Amino acid sequence: MSAAAVARRRRSADELEIVAFERGDHTSYAACGLPYYVADLVGAAERLVARSPDQHRAHGIDVRTRHEVVGIDLDQRCVTVRDLDADADHAEPFDHLLVATGATPVRPALPGVDADGVHGIQSLADGMSLRADLDDHPHERAVVVGGGYIGLEMAEAMKLRGLDVALVEMAEQPMATLDPDMGALVADALRATGVDLHLGETVEGFEVEGGRVRAVATSAGELAADLVVLGLGVRPRSGLAAEAGIVVGPSGGIATDRQMATSEAGVWAAGDCVETYHRVSRRPVAIALGTHANKQGRVVGLNVTGGYATFPGVIGTAITKVCEFEIARTGLGEGEARRAGFEPVVARIEASTRAHYYPGANPITVKVVAERGTGRLLGGQIIGREGAAKRVDVLAAAIWNEMPAEEFSQLDLGYAPPFSPVLDPVLIAARKVADSV
Amino acid sequence: MSAAAVARRRRSADELEIVAFERGDHTSYAACGLPYYVADLVGAAERLVARSPDQHRAHGIDVRTRHEVVGIDLDQRCVTVRDLDADADHAEPFDHLLVATGATPVRPALPGVDADGVHGIQSLADGMSLRADLDDHPHERAVVVGGGYIGLEMAEAMKLRGLDVALVEMAEQPMATLDPDMGALVADALRATGVDLHLGETVEGFEVEGGRVRAVATSAGELAADLVVLGLGVRPRSGLAAEAGIVVGPSGGIATDRQMATSEAGVWAAGDCVETYHRVSRRPVAIALGTHANKQGRVVGLNVTGGYATFPGVIGTAITKVCEFEIARTGLGEGEARRAGFEPVVARIEASTRAHYYPGANPITVKVVAERGTGRLLGGQIIGREGAAKRVDVLAAAIWNEMPAEEFSQLDLGYAPPFSPVLDPVLIAARKVADSV
User: How far does B387 lie from chain A, in Å, by closest CA?
Assistant: First the structure.
């Protein structure tokens, strides 16, 4: 819908007809906000909707909800659209096609996975269903499956709803995208918030009673559960494109050039269904994140209307919060750097978010990864409390610009006691790594 | 003392004797923390002291407090030191000399300026004296003279101590280093916190009764005052160096090369007494800030012990907080950019510190300045509430790296609803300016 909105601003309805097919009921909603809606930090689901179908229509975009595109015919330049209510198909021609099919949540085919009380959390409908379950029934204990971003955010949401929370993660650490030493700190943080953490355990199925889940069976035993949230992440939903012969890349996402054009002329792709270029590893990656989707959509909206815009790729920045803890990463971790062919040098420091004497100064741990020899910054990871995680942005800017740690350590960052120690924690970390490259 | 500590870590007492002369009683204290000590956010003055004279001595640094250096003899390679208690001078020889004489607070020679109740706020002794005045006497109304960083911080401190606060500023806006449109927002913020703001008024003297101040006379009338705080900023204390023939630059600070060497062999300078290179305007500037002093001290400590280190200059980043408002700037403002020979293009946006639906989302205003044609980012200014100002750091990193606004607007910054809207406010501002360069 970002692409549609940008294109509409640049071309009137006389010049360009814009039709959007959506198989669900909603458009332009903040999927990233679902955990906070479930937690009741956001009161009404409508608050997550940036623009409803009717609002888009008022802007001259012909949104057709409950219409699913089930086929793309590149020779005939048309898509096959199924009206889900009428259960009827029709062909819709196009000059330009944007594939923005998003992502599919990982949902293991385990016994009991379809029982009442087992919730995915990808669509607004998922969120509404989970929240209704919480609102309508008294629950005591939730099991969250998956220790990535969405798993952690849902663990927080269940805590905020007053439930006891267990979290099961197959790996030996939560947040597999962090280095193990930083992952261990996340595990400590989760335990400190009262989450019953089960690392290195595989979910084998769900015990069901009267149609409703009552426990999660793992490789280590059984966890009682009134409610289960599957937070196992997502994969690019690229099947429709692949069936039409549009090239899908090694990450599983639709391959595009930097203008977001696919392998087929006049066919564009954007959002969670594509793969993008990782500027540090130089490898294609599929990262489902609203901020990338939004930027990519704008690029398509400009390019289909005769403009020129490119999406420059990503560096893997991510940030999350679980209760009072904040976690962030950017660039490559130590292991990722090695796998990308770098020889990494690392430093990890503990500092304070504010001047040590200023009220509310919180401990913060910063790890940075640099390239041996050049000292080029390759990655950064942060864990701490209020005021910690958004410091990842300045590391992201440095990594984007391929700054050496030595130069970065001298950067002129904002200093005043309510905001930072004399040397910001990110500068202290960069100084330490610069001294050992 | 940063220089001394770094040098001591690199050279044993057998190899290098280190003597530090300090005319006051304290070493290594956080002058930036004085407003928070006065406000009683910091309980004891000792909390501001990073390392006492005795602690330095324990690390092999011969600190001599209440000893003032009153002359530098470059031919004889010695300094004249006055023992303030004994009132006796002696000559102390040196191989290397570091001039770290700091800054002098601006103190206008106005009638009544020396009355009881008129306080400067530069040294720890100043802070202790002001706090004692507040602790020991009931006061109702404070007048703060000066609307820069220290003036605003002291206005907050006086509010926190429960006083009515008036602030007098000669310019038509507070925070003269901000563009007028952003300065007007700061004025609104100050008024919103209940500060009685007097812009465009000059202080002409102080009314004194029984030896104690009772009012401030300005060009527009009289302001009752139980207490006056002079927050007029500081100038480099470069007189001692100048008298010895060491070159002082156009900004009034001691001129150094990038290794912090002065015009005289074996004589170094660092901290508030020096001028430094502004990387965007390419002009020498004197900016008194602990974070620069600390970095410069380290550079000297390395260079005097046979290492090699440089201080790369500054870009004018500054940040402050007054009650619930946060204010920050980096690079050049619109007028500063024009005066430096750039043709500036500007954009100002209002956005939100978090996803609009997330609790605690605060309004934030971001202004960016870019160069016409190239789109190179030249400056950024921010005002908002909690979570606003530290965003200046990512702008600082971008300006340092001479990023074009277009590229910056696509940067991969941390996005999650508790931390940012889908596009961070700084990205929205960069996008807007990129569209008009």
Answer: 8
